[in-house]
Design brief:
two-stranded antiparallel ribbon, alpha+beta, 1 helix, two-stranded antiparallel sheet
Length: about 80
């Protein structure tokens, strides 16, 4: 949460979710306009096993790789004739 000094009174600014500021685009006293970027806020959550968003991405990548393997095996099985 922060405050921007404007005329005739200050304006409050805040992020809609909790996070950590990872990059600042402005300095104190700098003039800005509506729509100018002020900060980049990282909203990912950290746990003992790492950053949740990174872990979720790895899990999805692993699932996609496994699905690709399954699809390749199914295609190969289609080529093999049934032996009765």
């Amino acid at each position: 949460m922060g405050e921007i000094s404007t005329y005739p009174r200050s304006s409050n600014v805040y992020a809609s979710v909790q996070g950590v500021v990872v990059k600042q685009f402005v300095t104190e006293g700098q003039l800005i306009k509506t729509g100018d970027a002020i900060y980049i806020v990282d909203v990912s959550k950290s746990t003992r096993s790492g950053v949740v968003s990174d872990n979720q991405r790895m899990d999805v990548d692993n699932q996609l790789a496994r699905i690709s393997q399954i699809m390749a095996l199914l295609q190969e099985n289609k080529k093999t004739p049934l032996k009765c």
